[in-house]
Task: inverse folding
C-alpha cells in the first residue's frame, strides 16, 4: 500500500494569488491519483483524478494537477484563488492492482481578502 | 441518485455503550471501506470488504467490527466505545470495473 505525504499542513494565501499544494507518494508502481476537497463541516468531494493518459488533469473550477512518475508526485495548482476555495485538500493514491485508497494528512488552504 | 448513505450524521455517546453506524450504497459496488478522519492524520482505513462475507482489517482496526451480510450494507460496530474513538467517520464504496470512489457524508462521533 502507498504512503502519501502532503508537504504543507497549512497554506495561507491572498485572494487572486496562485497556490500550489504538494503531494508525494511512496512507490513508483502504476497508480491512480486523486485530489479531494473538504469544505468546512462538509464531506469529501472529488476534485480531480488521474487514471491514465495525459499527465495534466484539470477540474471544472480551475484547479489542475500534474502527475510526475519519476518524482512520484501529483501536485495541485490554481493560478488565482477565491475566498470560496478555503478548505482542506487531501491527496489520495491507489495502486492499480489494489483497491485501497491511501490518503495524505491534508493541507488546509485559507484564502484571505 | 448514486450515493453512499451513512447514519447517523452526528452521535454523542458514553464510554462503553455499544453503537452501530450504518452505511448503505445503491450502486451495486463490490468494494466498501470505512475510514476515520483525525486532525493532522488525514483519513485512515479501519476495515474494508471486497464482497459479501469478505472483510479484512485496514490500518487502524482496533476497537471496531464490521459485517457484510448484504452487498449494499456495511455497518461499523463499536462494541465498547472509548474517548479515543471520537472522530469523523466516512464510508466509501467502489466497483471493481470503475475507478471512482463514492464517499458518504460522514458521521461525527463523540465518546464522552
Result:
Amino acid at each position: 500500500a502507498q504512503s502519501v505525504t502532503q508537504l504543507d499542513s497549512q497554506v495561507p494565501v491572498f485572494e487572486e494569488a496562485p497556490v500550489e499544494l504538494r503531494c508525494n507518494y511512496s512507490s513508483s508502481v502504476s497508480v491512480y491519483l486523486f485530489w479531494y476537497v473538504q469544505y468546512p463541516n462538509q464531506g469529501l468531494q472529488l476534485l480531480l483524478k488521474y487514471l491514465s493518459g495525459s499527465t495534466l488533469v484539470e477540474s471544472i473550477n480551475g484547479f489542475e494537477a500534474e502527475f510526475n512518475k519519476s518524482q512520484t508526485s501529483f501536485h495541485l495548482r490554481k493560478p488565482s484563488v477565491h475566498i470560496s476555495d478555503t478548505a482542506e485538500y487531501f491527496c489520495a493514491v491507489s495502486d492499480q492492482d489494489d483497491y485501497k485508497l491511501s490518503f495524505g494528512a491534508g493541507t488546509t488552504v485559507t484564502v484571505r481578502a | 441518485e448514486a450515493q453512499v448513505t451513512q447514519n447517523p450524521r452526528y452521535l454523542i455517546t458514553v464510554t462503553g455503550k455499544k453503537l452501530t453506524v450504518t452505511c448503505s450504497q445503491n450502486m451495486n459496488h463490490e468494494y466498501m471501506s470505512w475510514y476515520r478522519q483525525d486532525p493532522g492524520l488525514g483519513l485512515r482505513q479501519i476495515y474494508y470488504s471486497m464482497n459479501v462475507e469478505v472483510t479484512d482489517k485496514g490500518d487502524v482496526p482496533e476497537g471496531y467490527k464490521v459485517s457484510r451480510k448484504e452487498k449494499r450494507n456495511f455497518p461499523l460496530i463499536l462494541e465498547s466505545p472509548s474517548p479515543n474513538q471520537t472522530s469523523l467517520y466516512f464510508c466509501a464504496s467502489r466497483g471493481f470495473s470503475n475507478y471512482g470512489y463514492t464517499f458518504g457524508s460522514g458521521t461525527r462521533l463523540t465518546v464522552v
